[in-house]
Structures are given as C-alpha cells and as structure tokens.
Amino acid sequence: MSGNGRAARVIEAKGLTKVYGKGEGRVEALAGVSLDVAPGEWVSVVGPSGSGKSTLMNLLGLLDRPTSGRYVLDGREVSGLRGGDLARARRELIGFVFQSYNLLPRQSARRNVELPLVYAGVRGSERKKRALEALEQVELSDRAAHKPPELSGGQKQRVAIARALVGRPAMLLADEPTGNLDTKSGVGILDLFGDLNAAGVTLIVVTHDPEVADRGDRIVDIRDGLVFADERSGGVRE
Amino acid sequence: MRAFRIAGMGLSGLLVNWGRTILTMLGIVIGVAAVVLLASLGNGIQKSISGQINDLGPNLITVSPGTSGEQDGGDNGPFGAAAASTLTPDDTQLVDGLPGVAAASSNVSTVAPVGQESVSFSGVDPSYDEIRAVELAAGRFVEGRGEVVLSQADARRLLNSGPDEAVGETLSVGTPPEDAPERDPEQEGPAQGPNRLPERLPERLREQIPEGFPQDAAPEQEPRQEPTREPTQEPAPEPVRKYEVVGVAEASDVEFGPPIPESSYMATGDALEVSGVKTVGQIVVQAEGAGDVDRAVDGISKELREAHDGAKDFSVITQRELLSTFTEITDQLKIFLAGIAGISLLVGGIGVMNIMLVSVAERTREIGVRKALGATNADVLFQFLLEAILLSLIGGVVGVALGIAGSAVLPEILTDLPPAVVTGNEVALAFGVSALIGVVFGVLPAYRSARLQPVEALRRE
Ligand SMILES: Nc1ncnc2c1ncn2[C@@H]1O[C@H](COP(=O)(O)OP(=O)(O)OP(=O)(O)O)[C@@H](O)[C@H]1O
Ligand SMILES: [Mg+2]
To answer: In what residue span(s) does the MacB-like periplasmic core domain sit (chain B) (predicted)?
Structure first.
C-alpha cells in the first residue's frame, strides 16, 4: 500500500461526465473531464462557483458514480466497482478531506482518526498507535483526547487530515479544505500539505484562493463542467 | 475479526452518545411499560369483575329431589321438598368428584328448638360458604360437627349479642330432657361468658384439633363430650347437644341470582341427626367455571341416575340467565381490554418506531462519513442492527420491570383499582412487539441511508 510499486499514474480519468436530474431539471455538472495525475503531484483545482469542481472531486474520491467515463485509480479500473470492492478502494486508495470536516462530534480526535482503520479490520492497539502517529504528523498529539466541538476549525481540519492519512492512501483529495478557516489557520493547513507533499503524498486540492492554488505543481481550471486550462503552476499567473 | 471490531466500535459509540442512547431507550421503555401496565391493570379489572359476578353464583348448579319443572327448585331454598327427597349425602360425595365440578355441598333444612326459641338451620358441608359465597360478619364457617354459624338475626334473638360477642358461645340445641332443663345453660351459658373468656380460648383452639387426635384430657373438656354420648343414654328423639358458635353470617344482600336464605348453619351430619332423616333437601354444586356448567350438569344427571338405579327422581337446575349475562359481560370486557391493550401496543410501537426513525435518520450524515472512510453497506447495517437490538433488549427489559412495578404500585395508590394481574403472555407480547419494531425501524432507515452514495448521505441534514 505504500508508494512502492505504484502505477505511473495515480489517476487516469477519461471523459468523466456527471448528469444530475432529468428533463427540465437536467444539469450536466461534468461534461467530459479527462485528467491524469502522477504520483507525488500536487494538483490545484480552481474554477468559478458551480463549475463542477466538487462534482469532479466526488467522482475522483469514489464518493459518487460518474454518468459515463472511465476512471483508473492507482492502476486499477474503478468505474465499475461495487459494494465491498468499492469500499475497499475507498479506504485503501483515497483520503478525503471535506470543507466541513465531517468528524463524528461525540468521538475523540483519536477515535475519529481510527475510524478508517476499524473498517480496514486493524485491531485496537495497532489502531490507537497509528492514529496517534497520524495526529503527531498533523501536530495535534496534545489534542488526541479532545472531541471536535472542543477544537478550533484549523484543529478540526487537522484531525480530518490525520484521518485521511492514517490508512496511507494513494492520494489525498481536499475540497476547499481551508474554505471555513481564517487566513492563519488556512496557512497552517497549507504548510502541512506542503510537508505531506514533500514526503511524497499525492494531493488534489480544490480552492477559490489563487494563493492556495499557487502552492500546487499544477492548476486545473474547470469551467462549465470541462477542463478549461491545465497548466504548470505559475505559468498562468498574472 | 473485522465484524468484531465494528461491533466494539458501535458499542463504544452507544456509550459515547449516551444522551441519544438513553433517549432512544426511553422511548422503548415507555412503550413497553405502558403496554404491560395497561394490560395488567385490565387483567386485574377483568378478574375483579369476573370474581364479583362469580360471587352471584353463575356457576351454581342445584340438584333438587323430584322431577318437577326446572324453575322451582332454585327458589325452594333449603325448605325445598325435603320430605320427598331421594338425595343422600352419598350423592353429594358422588357429585363432588365429577369433572367440571369445583365443589358440592348437601343442604339439609331443619328446624330445631334452642331453649324457648325455634331456629331454622341449614345443614351444609364446609364447602358451602365458598359455593354460595356466604359472607361472615365474624368468626369462620362451619368446618365440622358440633359447630354452628348463626345468622345475625338468630345471634341477636338467641344470645342477645352482636356477631363478635356471639362467636365462642355455646348453644344447646334440641328439646331438653325434663329432669335437667337448667343444667346446660347454667354450665356453658352466655351469662358466665365474661369471666370464663380466657379459659374458653384454648378450649376453642382444641376444638379444631381433628377427632381422634390424642388430647390432653383437660377437666373442662368433659362436659363437651357428654352430649355425643347422650343419645345412647337417653332415648329422647331430639337429644340436647351443645354446639359452639364458630361464626356469624352477614345478612345477605344478593340482588339477583338465587337468593341466599337468611339462615343459621350447622354441619350436614348434625342436621340429619337433629331432623332424624337420611336424605338431604338439596345438593348445591359449583362448576369450575362458567364454561364448565354444561359439562358438569351432564355428568351429574348421568351419574346420579345411575346411582339411583336409572330413576330420574331429581332435577338439575342452573342459573341460565345469570350465566348468559355473565358470559356476555366478561366477553365484552375481554374485547374491550384486548382493544385497550392493542391500542397501547400500537401507540407504544409507533413511539418506538418514531424515536428509532428520528435517531437513525439524523445519523444519515454519520453513515455518509463512515462509507466515505471505507465502510461497506453491510458494515453500516451490522452496526445499526447491533445497536437497535441492544437498545430494544435493554429498553424492553427496563420497560417490563417498570410496567410490573407500576402494576404493583398503582393499585396501592389508587385504592379503587383492583390489584393488577401481570401475565407472561402480555409481557412477552409487549416486549416482543416493541423489540421487533425497535429493531426493524432502527435498521430500516440505516439501510436506506447506507444505500445512498456517500456524497448524497453527506449532503443530508
Ligand atoms: N445533487 C445535485 N443535484 C443537482 N444538481 C447538482 C447537484 N450537485 C451539484 N449540482 C449542480 O452541478 C453543478 C456543479 O456543482 P458543484 O458543486 O460541482 O460546483 P462547484 O464547482 O463545486 O461550486 P462551488 O465552488 O460553489 O463549490 C452546479 O450547477 C450544481 O447546481
Ligand atoms: Mg464545491
């Protein structure tokens, strides 16, 4: 499950479409997106509101099903996966960071981080050890016993990142991870992403903030459900 | 092993979310407790009403001598056709053992002189007070020979005393021999009551010791044995015997059903001896239940006829009208109470359903999170099933305990309520239905949420 032996492309998506609704209310959120992501890359996804960024992330994170298109994740065709295989792909290949954290409010930070390991079948003591390691990685060891309501927004997002990391996935997907945070906390999260990326973690980060986008190696600009631009970072600046 | 871990996590989740856990459980507790309580109170009311109707004698069967119409026997009371009777105490014995018969008693009417007065006695067996629901104002009913229970009127007339004072007194029954008219009243009469009371008490206790039991011959015992020997000593037709008053009967106020005649009672054997006849005027029988009356009547008719060499020289009378009223009332009551129990079960079930639906529906987002992190639908269902089972079981047990406790306490507080009767069937039904609803509606919404794409589940709320 580690970086060794991974495919040349973490993500190979071809012609992904997503259509919501039918007839009058039909919305083509994605009109055919193709995207390749190499291991260790940091890809920023930008675009106007409603352009389909979140829709794309949900497809890439296996949280939703494309209407059509092909998706190869870490060398495996995952478009047709169902049931147990799909759940396994989610927990082994993907770490997802949400804008709104999506932590279980009553469980301690450590227990939240342990959650993916429960479904991976890791036994209790090992789970605890790895959760604490992940919390250490996000510099939150001293908050392991705290529950989400007792944490700041930035701290909550760190717990969420630790949870996304703990299963050692092929990549980390983050949909506006700093969207709910003040600038200072946001910078903290981005620094963390920088460290993780430096350590070899593949990152795809949706953002509205050009400065955040610039932290990535690449910027993918989505407009009206299509890739409008896909360039190396800095190339399109100013 | 993986399932084991998910189970452990689910349980720790129940503890961590103790507020929600308790609230959900409370829904089940209240549902189950309400059903158990209502059903038990209903049972108690039914039992009480049935008991009260039973006291009126719907299970009563009267066997009267003669083949006359079925209507007169019951009204003849203890004076019914004693002269022409063909019924004997042996017949009573025979009837008592028949299927569907709870108890049977002879009834011999006799009039005997007591001092200057003449008193009507019903000679009956000890089971008579059960069969006819004789209410006692004091003391106990006749349990053997040598004992009498006086009516309140007779107690006043003969002893000039109220019920409580009359108990323990001794009466001389029969025409006194001319040479010793004064002896007996002097010896054991009421006049000596007050100062002899303490001695009388152990004497009465000894009375209850069965015959033949070796008794320490106390000196005051001797006059007591005298009367039984008297008939052999003196050939008088109605020898004087001394009887102890063991109880005083309440004036009966039966409003319908066969009237219980205002009477004083003695043992069947004594009445036969006093009246000098060998037959009984009537046999009163109590069927085991209202539904057993027909069976008992058939048995009695058949067996007595055989015992009487095929002669149908008796009639068997039942309280048909009362019986049908009785079954009508109890049937209606049963339907009514079943309705109440059913409605409370429904209401309780809907309550359980509601709380489970709400508590699980608000966890759709949680389900989305779990699925996003790699839980399969089966994992989610397993966790929610486990939680629902645990909540339903614990809630059900607590509810049953609370319902039973309430059934015990409520009639104590509301004294007009008859004691509740908790039956296993209803407890099981309340528990089973609530637990089933709890599990079904704990899992169903979880199943619905689990089938959503994770992103859809996360969007809810
Ligand atoms: N569940 C849905 N049902 C119907 N339409 C949807 C649904 N989700 C998204 N859409 C539509 O799809 C389009 C793309 O939505 P999406 O959330 O991907 O945009 P976005 O780029 O993430 O916007 P933002 O920057 O505001 O988050 C929008 O027009 C939106 O209205
Ligand atoms: Mg979005």
So the answer is: 21-174
Radius of gyration (Cα) for chain A, nearest Å? 17
How near does any CA of chain A get to the CA of B369, in Å?
Answer: 7
Residue ranges of the domains in chain B? 2-53+325-459, 84-178+238-312
- Going by the DSSP 8-state scheme, the letter that residue B160 receives in this structure is -
Residue B240: predicted pLDDT: 72
Short-list B308, B267, B253, B452, CA closest to B366: B452
Pairing of β A76-77 and β A94-97: unpaired
Residue B23 at interface with chain A, using a CB cutoff of 8 Å:
no
Task: Please tell me the predicted confidence (pLDDT) of residue B203.
Answer: 45
> Which tokens hold the place of A208?
């509205």
Beta-strand runs (E) in B59-161: 60-65, 101-114, 117-124, 136-139, 147-151
CA of A100 to the centre of ligand 2 (A): 11
The count of other CB atoms within 10 Å of the CB of residue B202 is 11
Distances B340 to A189, B307, B326, B399, B402 between C-alpha atoms, Å: 62, 50, 21, 18, 19
Cα separation values, B131 from B56, B120, B127, B168, B283, Å: 10, 20, 6, 25, 11
Q: What does the alpha-carbon distance between residue B355 and residue B2 come to, in Å, rounded to a whole number?
A: 29
CB A33 within 8 A of CB A15: yes
By the 10 Å C-beta count (0-12 exposed, 13-18 middle, 19+ buried), B413 is classed as exposed
How many other C-beta atoms can be found within 10 angstroms of the C-beta atom of residue A120? 19
Phi, psi angle pair for A231, to nearest 5° = -135, 165
d(CA A103, CA A134): 15
CB-based pocket (< 6 A), ligand 1: A 20-21, 27, 29, 47, 49-55
Residue carrying structure tokens 């959760």:
A131
Closest CA to B244 of B185, B166, B182: B166
Q: Note whether A217 and A42 are within 8 A (CB).
A: yes
Cα distance between residue A29 and residue A2, in whole Å: 34
Question: Any CB–CB contact under 8 A between B312 and chain A?
Answer: no
Per DSSP, the residues of A49-67 read TTSSHHHHHHHHTTSS--S
Locus of tokens 């309705």: B339
Please report the beta strands in A27-180, taking only residues with DSSP state E, as ranges in sequence order. 27-37, 42-46, 68-73, 76-77, 94-97, 171-175
What is the C-alpha radius of gyration for chain B, rounded to an integer number of angstroms? 34
Instruction: Please state, in angstroms and rounded to a whole number, the distance separating the CA atoms of residues A217 and A223.
Output: 20
pTM (2 decimals)? Answer: 0.68
* DSSP state at residue A24: G
User: What is the whole-number distance in angstroms between the Cα of residue A100 and the centre of ligand 1?
Assistant: 16
- For tokens 């701290």, the residue is A155
Cα distances (Å, whole numbers) of residue B175 to A86, A88, A168, B179, B268: 108, 108, 115, 12, 19
Instruction: Quote the CA–CA distance of B365 and A103 in Å, as a whole number.
Output: 10
Among protein residues, the one with the nearest Cα to ligand 1's atom 10 is A29
Type of residue found at A87 = A
Identify the segments of chain B with pLDDT beneath 70. Answer: 54-57, 68-84, 175-239, 252-261, 461
DSSP B302-317: HHHHHHTTT---EEEE
In the predicted model, what is the mean pLDDT of chain A?
A: 88
- Kind plus residue range of the DSSP H or E element containing B346: helix B320-361
**From CA A95, how far away is CA A120, in angstroms rounded?**
13
Contact B233, B218 (CB under 8 A): no
